[in-house]
Amino acid sequence: MDRSQSPTPPQVTFYTKAGCHLCDDARDMLDEIAAQTAYELTEIDIRRDTELFERYRYRIPVIMINETLAAEGRIDYNELTHAFHNRQETQRTDE
Q1: How far is CA 24 from CA 9, 15, 29, 60, 89, in A?
Q2: Considering only CA atoms, which of 29, 18, 11 is closest in space to residue 74?
Q3: What are phi and psi of 53, to 5 degrees?
Q4: Of 19, 62, 71, 84, which sits with the fewest C-beta atoms within 10 Å of its C-beta?
Q5: Total number of domains in the chain
Q6: Residue 6 covered by a domain
Q7: What is the domain extent for residue 43?
Q8: Is the pTM of this model over 0.90?
Q9: What is the pLDDT of residues 61-92, one digit of tens each?
């Protein structure tokens, strides 16, 4: 298989919790981006892990792309799409 024709989709980790309206907004943005860009999503409820809760409770929603912070808190759609674009460009130059 030619990797240049089918790059590995970015790994997106979305830290969230129920009742977080900013998280709901961020999830909607991720859904919109998914219509244009392939990615693998892992959604993590921070309430299920004490360490994650302590780390992210004042920062959520937090979106990581390939283990790099892409956005947190009040997320701007344009900044998030820019982060996805930058990760794709970085991946292309690394291959």
Answers
A1: 23, 11, 9, 11, 28
A2: 29
A3: -60, -45
A4: 19
A5: 1
A6: no
A7: 11-94
A8: no
A9: 999 999 999 999 999 999 999 999 887 666 65
